[in-house]
Amino acid sequence: MKDMTMAELAALQNQQEVAILDVRDQEDFLARHFAGSLNIPEPDLEAQLDQLDRNQVYHVVCTKGIRAARASQLLEEQGYEVVRIVDGWAAY
């Protein structure tokens, strides 16, 4: 699993298309998110894995990095390639 900061993610998104999986609840997601992000709250992720493309690299973000870490671990265990955003929206 790779790690990245929010600042690095923002810079990367400005250069190329990036698949972002935001695992915050819907209210937080609607208040602020990267355009084109997919929102699946972390508690619902395992039940909604069928919404994800196994050929995609997902950049997983939350508020502070805690839910992103759990979600990233789950995705990696299920065979997905992930980049964990270690600091989250609180740092951006």
From TrEMBL:
Q: Which InterPro entries match?
A: GlpE_sulfurtransferase, Rhodanese-like_dom, Rhodanese-like_dom_sf
The domain of life is Bacteria
PROSITE patterns referenced in this protein's UniProt entry, alphabetically: RHODANESE_3 (PS50206)
Occurrences of domain Rhodanese (ranges): 14-91
Family annotation (CDD domains): RHOD
Q: Which Gene3D superfamilies match?
A: Rhodanese-like domain (3.40.250.10)
Q: Could you list the residue ranges forming a coiled coil in this record? A: none
Q: What is this protein called?
A: Rhodanese-like domain-containing protein
